[in-house]
Write a structure and sequence with these properties.
The structure is a homodimer. Chain A is elongated and about 90 Å long. Helices cover about 35% and strands about 20% of the residues of chain A. The longest helix of chain A is centred in the N-terminal third of the chain and has 20 residues. Strand 3 of chain A pairs antiparallel with strand 3 of chain B, so a sheet runs across the interface.
Chain lengths: ~450, ~450
Amino acid sequence: MARKASLSGFPEWLPAERVVEQHVLDTLRRVFELHGFANIETRAVETRGQLLRKGEIDKEVYGLSRLAAEDEDKNDPNALALHFDLTVPFARYVVENAGHLAFPFRRYQMQKVWRGERPQDGRFREFTQADIDVVGDGSLPFSYDVELALTIADALSALPIGDFRLRVNNRKLAEGFYRGLGLDDPDAVLRAIDKLEKIGPQKVAEILTTEVGATAEQAEKALALAGICTSDVSFVEQVRALGVAHELLDTGLDELSQVISAASKRAPGKVVADLSIARGLDYYTGTVYETVLVGHESLGSICSGGRYESLASKGKKTYPGVGLSIGVTRLVSRILGEELVSAARSVPSVVYVTLANEDAWHEAQDVAAALRERGIACEVASSAEKFGKQIKYADRRGIPFVWFTHADGTHEVKDIRSGEQISADPVNWNPPAGDLVNSVN
Amino acid sequence: MARKASLSGFPEWLPAERVVEQHVLDTLRRVFELHGFANIETRAVETRGQLLRKGEIDKEVYGLSRLAAEDEDKNDPNALALHFDLTVPFARYVVENAGHLAFPFRRYQMQKVWRGERPQDGRFREFTQADIDVVGDGSLPFSYDVELALTIADALSALPIGDFRLRVNNRKLAEGFYRGLGLDDPDAVLRAIDKLEKIGPQKVAEILTTEVGATAEQAEKALALAGICTSDVSFVEQVRALGVAHELLDTGLDELSQVISAASKRAPGKVVADLSIARGLDYYTGTVYETVLVGHESLGSICSGGRYESLASKGKKTYPGVGLSIGVTRLVSRILGEELVSAARSVPSVVYVTLANEDAWHEAQDVAAALRERGIACEVASSAEKFGKQIKYADRRGIPFVWFTHADGTHEVKDIRSGEQISADPVNWNPPAGDLVNSVN
């Protein structure tokens, strides 16, 4: 990025950069809505009790206190804090509003979240996430696991980010395999496998044998499973060839096959079965998703998620869900940093309406009103400076057209890129379609 | 509102309510961009030092602290807090990025802000503001004061809020008048006049004579000035008739005349000169704006602002500005509470693609893809329940059309409102234009 944030971890964009971010958000919104997801927003704050239910993330949370209030008890569960993701607030929202929602409820949510972590490349303290989830009342058909992978593949394909891989795995497959192998603590195995990319297979094997109680052969097979990665359903054969049997493994293989076979047909090359995906400590119970930008693997996952047996619960009621979360700020910071695309101009205006003299302001407003009436964004000069200065005003902002109204009431419009100047009427002149909207290319 | 926020002062909307809020935000965005305003966002946090420069609002600020951090010093000016408006962050942004911006810089900004105040009807702890400002480097032509009134009148006219009045006054007019009257503390007079609506003219006169040192005649004239309200420039004559003369009064009358004469032509009936508008303690130096919803005056101002001689400054550099801020949440809560408009449905989907049997899922996805390709939002049934149940799914969400694919490969689409069912082809069937987008009426 050209500039450094004045507050580390809290990026802010210049107007032309914001156009790119806005384009990303608009594109996601369009695709999510085409797939029938309704938008909601939740408040930025939750009670600390709500946020800390998943104990291990407390260090990342920003607590809130009114500066005018007396010193507060940090451990008060009713005190407020900023949300650190959109899943916890969504779960609360679903429980609170269950009586007003139609289940399965499919929603998207694009909001800022905050984490007090140490900022790094692609990791921020304030950042925007774009989440889609489907949540059921009591049960949720598995076909949603397939549908969400397809929706996200559609959404990411529409973004100016180049090629990506949505890597999918299934917790039942992994757990069934480990249990079939005779390893009774599948979570511990998963935690070790999760470190594969960081520390390599040798060290993972060491953890498995010394800490998880696996034999060398069990460790080898667990690593062999994690090494399977296919863009079609051939992973099933490869798993079977490892000679492990378990009922849960069968279910997991079947579920993952459904996702991959649908995806290989509808989003060819975008979705792969990658049996190394573990998603660490998150509370997923079936399908898990992770996404890398091809050529930007070091950025980490730009879109992750999975299936929860119980996204939320109230009393005996549970709400299973499946969802994914796109790291919008991470993506946008990379798009801007690598200049993958940029905005055509720094302002929405297509036309700058000049003033021949100070008395022409009202007439110029009439021109502007006629253009706006037809959806053409424009600005009127604020004073009748020399035309050269007025043209420079437009040029500095990338406004492609300047408008002149002559003393005899006729009009001309000039494309300041080509210099071409033509007669025009504010009630029917149109800019080329490519100029009408501030495009991102 | 139908439901009470689970956390007082932090409203959350149901999906169909969010459609209304989104409509308001989309409409504002469209109008602001047609008028050439570029969008920016600023981070949610500022340093406390930055926020507390206007001393008197400290009680409303939410401070932030990482829960894992050691106890912090509340008085540390580098500690973080949530912004309470968009003006202070914008001023900082302008100073920090001055070298990258083209002045006069016109921007709009629509974000949440937070205030730790006691919640009341129309007053929230978390709420969305939509601000437009133009800021100059060193100077800013007065014509922007006119243009901003017209832009806001355009924006508010496009919202589903009924009639409104943008009331405009001018601090120079008021100060010149008071000084011409012989009152040397115009701020004290303004503060008293600001209470007019709350406590009435008798009590204001009492304050003016006992606390501000005015004679009975001076108090009478100050109140007479505040009583002037016209929808054309006739206020000038009425002020002149009070027999007060001052150079600053002349300037103020001229400036306000420019706003009102332009507005009476371009936004007839929407903008009035209201000489009672004081805008309390805000640091305005010329034009001041306030807006009431006709029939909802108790809601307070829904859009306020004015001209700052120095919105921001750095060393000897000053950045004068003029801007207005719309209270989006206040407006939306009233629109929803009074059911002024509502969304046609709770989901974006126009079509629900049914399944005749479980094997039909892929075929149904083909139908959905063909519809989405042409911008028609749709969902595919997740399992092949009885058609009655599938239709009920659509009906509960207000999805107007259900799609059937028959065993022979032909398709039919049914409008579940009218019951009409017709043959259709996914590559060329279109819903009526009024159904395509989830409309707000």
